[in-house]
Amino acid sequence: MSHTPPIITHIERGVMTVTLNRPHVKNAMNFEMVDALVDAFKSAANADSVRALVLRGADGTFCAGGDLKELSSGNKDKDAIAQGNRRFGELLELAQGFPKLLVTVAEKAAMGGGFGLVCVSDVAIAESGCRFGMPEVVLGLIPAQIAPFVCARIGLTETRRLALTGLIIDGFDAQRLGLVHHHEDGEKAVEARLQIVLKQAMKAGPEAVKTTKAILNGMAGVKGATLDEAANLFADTLLSDEGIEGTRAFVEKRPASWMEMPK
To answer: Whole-angstrom Cα distance, residue 184 to residue 173?
Structure first.
């Protein structure tokens, strides 16, 4: 039985397309996928033939977030959990500092970590029906690594509203908040918008893009120490009674014990 790669990469006319490739779990990210994405970003950053990177998901779904089945059934060692969580933060830092244009195409779902990937893109295109959210608190967990990037993207007030309630929004609201730049009705419209964005991107000088991004990232940088602390807090919540119940409820496809309104 052959191993299915966690991502698929393809380069054509200066554009590297990176496709999240775990469609059987709606492209939820596991440790293998995160490592593969880190490698892809580093490779694209160093390739003179690549002018832009497009990040999208296989089978028309962007990303359902982290693979909670892997997390809930894996290592119970706090340090190992924190290290794994922080590795995703390293991916977000790498994507944020990517020296070329980064475009995300969000279809059907961009949840949790997928939401975070949208937040570090230079241009985000959404299918109107795509669902966006940070549902971690509903699972008794925290949006540890993505929260600072979300705040930088849409501001503290809206980040509080989404992060503290686990509210799910659509492409229209995502554009209204500044999370995405375009929302389009249907696959054909999404593809057409992507081609418009890439055609415009190819008019820009590569060195000018690199330097401009360095300036902008310096103005809105996320501190590594914040992500380090967040990783430890994530490990604490995952191993807590609430985190164990929340992830178990998710795997068992039932409401968590605290979801009944107090009388």
So the answer is: 12
Q: How does pLDDT run across 129-147, given as a tens digit for each residue?
A: 999 999 999 999 999 999 9
| Strand order, beta sheet including 15-20 | 7-12, 15-20, 52-57, 101-106, 123-127, 182-184
Query: How many CA atoms, within 13 angstroms, populate the side-chain half-sphere of residue 41?
Result: 25
DSSP single-letter state for residue 88: H
Strand partners, 53: 16, 102
- Report field, pTM of the whole predicted structure over 0.85: yes
Select from 3.90.226.10, 3.30.70.240, 3.80.10.10, 1.10.238.10 the CATH code of 7-201: 3.90.226.10
Q: What is the pLDDT of residues 10-37, one digit of tens each?
A: 999 999 999 999 999 999 999 999 999 9
Provide the residue ranges of all domains of the chain, joining segments of one domain with +: 7-201
